[in-house]
Amino acid sequence: MGDANLFSDTFTLTSINAQKYDRVARLAAHTENGDTSLTLDVNTELFPCNLGDRLQILLASTLSLDGSKDDDGKGWRDVGRGEASVADEYDYVCHGKIYRFEEGDDENM
User: Fold this and answer.
1) Sorted alphabetically, which keywords does the UniProt record give (predicted)?
2) CB neighbours of residue 63 within 10 Å
């Protein structure tokens, strides 16, 4: 058991592209200091967004508060039903894999 939180920061939405899919928009956002950018597809019917909105983003390896793996046979939709989870602290929760991750240049770190 350990800290399941891999990354957390606040982002400001800079662009919303809803042209390709129904009810899904590709959001582009940057941190306040501009050192991290994010592109994320979101179901805007469930979680409507506007330019300039601030979003608190957390990447975690599990939704369990104690950091234990979610390998007890439950699906991700079952986590938190009747028990507290990290998802309780957020309005919108995604499950999946990170498609692409790009590290910045050493001079920008």
Assistant:
1) DNA-directed RNA polymerase, Nucleus, Transcription
2) 20
